[in-house]
């Protein structure tokens, strides 16, 4: 099955009619199309988790409802969308998931109606268990291990012994659920399971990085622990070595399905002599007769082990740095698209006011601004470095032939001129006595008013040259490509003939007729 089904289109249309944008986005992200959820829908849902007026429980419940579908494609994509929001959405989304008593109950899910239904249903059951375990880990420690601060001053490296011994088993359980996905390269056969595997791959790197730093902290404190603490710490370290082996197998699958080699970390195990030193120290605390290493040998062994595990931790950070760089490049690409749109919207009111875009650009000189700030807003335009004509003098008041002062902007000039002409013409003579007929009545048929507005000098306006290309379709006049001044022709005086019509008197005598009185 490929493409959106009729059911998907009907559901999206229903959500459009009801005005539920979130439900529509969830429906679009979890269609029957055998491919991963589209990025635009995931980005919109991530944006929704950051909006305070969005109902997070409603968003989560909408995703839970999609997992009740009988199609493995819809259910799998609902799990992928949930995982994506747990990784990249606002923290209050995973907080809500952690507060629920139950999340996904898909242990018995099976799609018998599709060609790949049996195989994909197995991975759906495993995937849902991992997401449940991820939410449970957050519920126990109130932190997402894949997002916590790492490094020498990170959370796991500065944690005290008692809390460290309680926290590391929680990481182990989550990592076990992740590695239990157990997908072979020949089973990653479609875009849906590939999307899930990529998210699991990213989680495995970050989760094991926190696990690795916790073990380093544990080893550094081991020889100062009490007997019971040493016993728990030794058990944690042995399980750590086993999970490192399983993770290396998981990463081999990732390499075979095309994940960049630079994103796959190098796992360096501590020397086997360290495990022997740890066991001998615990035996000595329990009173058993054993040959314990001297202080210098023990310190050298511990230093070598910490150095090996630290180099592994350094290799984990490469994927984070690459992902951050990709995020910056994507953000820059979005800004490159939005900046011309913002410039167009900035000048659009002026274009509307002065007519067509071409006439507007003929009238004014444009200067490209020096750059934009971090949010994509315009900075103040800079003065061109090449020779340019001096700036125009400050606006002066032109003298109208009638003695009136005219401002140098078009709107003010029109207002002043209209006011002046109205006072001087016969259109609105306040003291005029209107004739109503009789022997002295004369028919005034028409009078003409001549109006010659004074020419107005245009003022240059700084508008980016890039906008010219956007507005007039890459057809920039030759003079517009120059950054210097453009000769502007002054507007020619215009003559307006305004006929003043006087309505004739309907009661006046007709020519040649005689008045008769009864």
Automatic annotation (TrEMBL):
Transmembrane helix is among the record's keywords: no
UniProt region (Disordered), positions on chain: 383-404
Compartments it resides in: Cell membrane; Cytoplasmic vesicle, Clathrin-coated vesicle; Golgi apparatus; Membrane, Clathrin-coated pit
Residue span, ENTH domain: 14-145
Signal peptide: none
Keyword annotations from UniProtKB, A to Z: Acetylation, Cell membrane, Coated pit, Cytoplasmic vesicle, Endocytosis, Golgi apparatus, Isopeptide bond, Membrane, Nucleus, Phosphoprotein, Ubl conjugation
Pfam families: ANTH
GO annotation, cellular component aspect: clathrin-coated pit; clathrin-coated vesicle; extrinsic component of presynaptic endocytic zone membrane; Golgi apparatus; nucleus; synaptic vesicle
Gene Ontology MF terms: 1-phosphatidylinositol binding; clathrin heavy chain binding; phosphatidylinositol-4,5-bisphosphate binding; SNARE binding
Biased composition (Pro residues): 387-396
Nucleus recorded as keyword: yes
Any one Gene Ontology BP term: clathrin-dependent endocytosis
Record-linked InterPro entries: ANTH_dom (IPR011417), ANTH_dom_sf (IPR014712), AP180-like (IPR045192), ENTH (IPR013809), ENTH_VHS (IPR008942)
Subunit description: Binds to clathrin; involves primarily the C-terminal sequences, but the full-length protein is required for full binding capacity. Binds phosphatidylinositol 4,5- bisphosphate. Interacts with PIMREG; this interaction may change the subcellular location into the nucleus. Interacts with AP2A1 (via its alpha-appendage domain). Interacts (via N-terminus) with VAMP2; VAMP3; VAMP7 and VAMP8 (Via N-terminus). Interacts with LC3/MAP1LC3A.
Entry function: Cytoplasmic adapter protein that plays a critical role in clathrin-mediated endocytosis which is important in processes such as internalization of cell receptors, synaptic transmission or removal of apoptotic cells. Recruits AP-2 and attaches clathrin triskelions to the cytoplasmic side of plasma membrane leading to clathrin-coated vesicles (CCVs) assembly. Furthermore, regulates clathrin-coated vesicle size and maturation by directly sensing and driving membrane curvature.
Stated family: Belongs to the PICALM/SNAP91 family.
Protein name: Phosphatidylinositol-binding clathrin assembly protein
Originating organism: Echeneis naucrates (Live sharksucker)
